[in-house]
Specification:
There is one protein chain. By secondary structure, the chain is mostly beta strands. It folds into 3 domains: about 170 residues, Immunoglobulin-like; about 120 residues, Sandwich (Immunoglobulin-like), CATH 2.60.40; about 130 residues, Immunoglobulin-like. Helix content is about 5%, strand content about 40%. It contains 3 helices and 38 strands. Strands 14-13-12-16-21-18-19 form a 7-stranded mixed β-sheet, with no helix packed on it. Strands 25, 26, 28, 30, 31, 32 and 34 form a 7-stranded mixed β-sheet that branches. A 6-stranded mixed β-sheet has the order 2-27-36-35-29-33. Strand 12 and strand 13 form a beta hairpin. It is globular. The chain binds CU-O-CU linkage and copper (II) ion. CU-O-CU linkage (C2O) binds next to strand 8 and strand 35.
């Protein structure tokens, strides 16, 4: 073959390959400014296609606030800072201050950004707040820039264990410490020890409430302890109690119905999820709660790590509790059999371009972000969603603004207590059927809480028809929610 012909063939082949590639690359570019409400494609889940995603007209999310008048029962000011060591703090500490409210109280949090140049927001993870208080930059508000402030006001409608964290450049800021615990208690006085166990890994060291290793749990024999385990990391963790049988009192801020005693088993806590463990300190006074990697709370920590068996750290139980069959059945308050929307949220992985970058990215129903489904609902809908994962990794899926209930896993129906959740581990190869009532109008993120995965495209939205947002991702406000 003559040289010039060879070159011609090579050039032709290159164009044939790069031409379509260039097209896909171009298609994948996320515009520098875009409105989340008009992102992707509308998926009506077989329900009525009335109403539209609006960028003009419709209900503005910023009107969907908590009570704008009235003195707050709980008022907190949180000042966000990026410290010299790179950590993110609120009022100079990480975790940020623990916020406690009684069910029904009006909570007001004033967020001040001291020096975080990327901007900050606060999201109330697991609290089904009105949309404008949800704290997602570019969807429900603009990121709060240095020198600015933003006031969140909402009624703590449900008792339970929650947490708050930034939802601006969240994969960096949450990892770096921009979070804290939020506990809402029942109005009735309850005796015993109520202990937050916020687990976070800083620079590879697992901590409880900021402390690595063992910490003291001040509890006497016969006292009942409620340990509110909060997983603020990106991976699932295991928690277990030794020295006494324990119960799973609540999952994701919802009481478990008819919990039974557990021993020699651990409980998996989804990234972003919470599990309340309750136990009675035995007569010996020795009890211990482990969350893995040597981080533990023990009633005997002062003595240098004597565990209940007198031998310090206890081995991790091999078996785990399955929430699908734990506890006793109870009424859901709605009938999932009457679902009028049925959505698929199928998580895969495929080669392509994400915002112009070639790679192997997470896909949703075969699509790459931002060309992903917008799950459309109207208020009062009963929604069923099938979340399937064939992507090779576990994904802790988190829907904002709603609690959903697990109906089945891999075709096996739930038989235990209603398993309400806001954060759910969907393992590789697993399929969950879940259901919820659409009762909180707005535009809500539905994403993976391994926040690096969210940045890498594992993020969609649940949107109520006729709701619009004036906020945009990117642009002058510099909103980067993930
Ligand atoms: Cu805990 Cu969208 O977040
Ligand atoms: Cu993920």
């Amino acid at each position: 073959m003559r040289r010039s012909v060879k070159i011609a063939i090579a050039v032709g082949a290159t164009v044939a390959i790069l031409g379509p590639l260039g097209y896909f690359w171009q298609q994948s570019l996320v515009p520098s400014t875009y409105n989340m409400a008009t992102m992707g494609y509308a998926d009506f889940g077989g329900g009525p296609q009335t109403g539209h995603v609006h960028s003009a007209g419709g209900l503005d999310v910023s009107t969907l606030t908590g009570p704008s008048t009235g003195d707050p029962d709980v008022a907190v000011t949180l000042t966000a800072r990026r410290e010299k060591n790179g950590k993110y703090t609120l009022n100079g500490v990480t975790p940020g201050p623990e916020i406690r409210a009684v069910k029904g109280q009006l909570v007001q949090v004033t967020l001040i950004n001291d020096n975080v140049t990327d901007g900050v927001t606060l999201h109330w993870h697991g609290v089904d707040v009105p949309n404008a208080e949800d704290g997602v930059a570019g969807v429900t508000q603009n990121a709060v820039q240095p020198g600015e402030q933003f006031v969140y006001r909402f009624v703590a409608q449900d008792a339970g264990t929650f947490w708050y964290h930034s939802h601006q450049v969240s994969h960096e800021q949450v990892k770096g410490g921009m979070f804290g615990a939020l506990v809402v208690t029942e109005p009735v006085f309850s005796e015993g020890i109520d202990q937050v166990v916020a687990v976070h890994t800083y620079d590879g060291r697992r901590t409880i409430n900021g402390r690595p290793g063992e910490s003291a749990l001040a509890a006497r024999p016969q006292q009942v302890v409620r340990a509110r385990v909060i997983n603020t990391d990106a991976q699932p963790l295991r928690a277990w109690v030794t020295g006494a049988p324990y119960r799973v009192a609540a999952i994701d801020g919802r009481e478990v119905h008819g919990p039974t005693d557990i021993s020699d088993k651990s409980v998996v806590v989804t990234a972003g999820g919470r599990v309340d463990l309750s136990f009675t300190v035995p007569a010996s006074g020795l009890a211990r709660l482990d969350v893995g990697a040597g981080a533990a709370l023990t009633t005997a920590a002062a003595g240098g790590g004597a565990g209940p068996a007198g031998g310090g750290a206890t081995g991790e139980p091999k078996a785990t509790i399955d929430f699908l069959s734990y506890g006793a059945k109870a009424d859901l308050g709605f009938d999932p059999g009457k679902a009028n929307r049925n959505f698929d949220y199928r998580i895969g992985r495929r080669a392509g371009f994400l915002d112009g970058k070639p790679g192997l990215w997470w896909s949703i129903n075969g699509h790459l972000f931002p060309d992903v489904p917008m799950f459309m609902v109207t208020t009062g809908d009963i929604v069923k969603m099938t979340i399937a994962n064939n992507s090779g990794e576990v994904h802790p899926m988190h829907l904002h603004g709603h609690h959903a209930v697990v109906l089945s896993r891999d075709g096996v129906a739930a038989t235990g207590s209603p398993w309400w959740f806001d954060s759910l581990d969907v393992g590789d190869g697993e399929t969950y059927e879940i259901a919820f009532v659409a009762d909180n109008p707005g535009i809500w993120v539905d994403h993976c809480h391994n926040l690096q995965h969210a940045v890498d495209g594992l993020l969609a939205h649940l949107a109520y028809t006729d709701v619009r947002t004036p906020f945009e991702v990117g642009g002058e406000a510099g909103n980067k929610p993930e």
